[in-house]
Amino acid sequence: WYLRGVDALFGKADRDFLFLLQEIKPPHLCSFVGIGPDILDLARRKIEAGLSLWRRCVESGTWPGYESRVHWAELPQYKIWDWESRDVAHVVGGES
To answer: 3: closest CA among 52, 54, 43?
Structure first.
């Protein structure tokens, strides 16, 4: 997204996108971290998809939203397994 802004201001060019990272605790070391081409390509495709959806919504006046139904929260399977393991441990260990 930032690269699109830079391209709009200064013209398209082959440039790297870098982050300057700094530790928050002493000695506050710094490091440059670049964004690889695969990440940039995926980011560009996601931005284009989002902009395309936005254009369609502006033109049609129809905006996506939540479905008009009840959405049910579900436990992740690992939470169920954790609890069942606890139950088994209590039975095997003789605890009630």
So the answer is: 43
Query: Can you give the residue ranges of every domain in the chain?
Result: 1-62
> What pTM was computed for the model?
0.54
pLDDT digits (tens, 9 = 90+) for 86-96: 877 776 666 55
Residue 73 CA to residue 40 CA, distance in Å, equals 34
Cα–Cα distance, 84 to 78 (Å, whole number): 10
Write down the H helix ranges in 11-76: 37-60
- Copy the structure tokens of residue 55: 């254009």
- C-alpha 26/C-alpha 24 separation (Å) is 7
Residue whose entry in the numeric block shows the structure tokens 């436990």: 75
Q: Are 7 and 13 in contact (CB under 8 A)?
A: yes
Segment holding 34, helix H or strand E: strand 30-34
Lowest-pLDDT range of 2-11, 17-26, 37-46: 2-11
